[in-house]
Amino acid sequence: METNCIFCKIADGEIPTDFVYENDTIAAFRDINPTAPEHILVIPKKHIENLNELNDREIMADLLFGVKEVCKKLNITDYRTVINTGKGAGQEVFHIHFHIIAGRPLKWPPG
Ligand code: DGP
Fold this sequence. Notes:
Strand order of the largest sheet: 1-2-3-5-4
Shape: globular
Strand content: 15-25%
Number of helices: 2
Oligomer: single chain
Largest sheet: 5 strands, antiparallel
Structural class: alpha+beta
Bound molecules: 2'-deoxyguanosine-5'-monophosphate
Helix content: 10-25%
């Protein structure tokens, strides 16, 4: 738990948040600033800054399986997953998270 980390506070229950999915190691909740009708964030409960700092294979797997569990639970079949890593790539919250974006047509390459 990092005292100044908003996602640690969410994971810890200090900031009350409706989880769309939760297990022992990860939690998923809706993005406060959605870019699509479905925009969900999947985080590890443990504080890890970003993908560069993620060296635990179990947590890697937990996150990716978590993405699948969330999509299964919400009946999302077509979606985009994004991990922004570093300020230059648009990372604003330095607690690693997958974005799940869905519910509208998604262009590729992204516009
Ligand atoms: P990123 O730019 O990849 O670090 O994405 C951070 C996302 O987190 C951004 O889309 C907005 C979202 N966000 C920031 N603060 C909160 C919060 O307090 N609650 C929720 N639900 N989402 C948040």
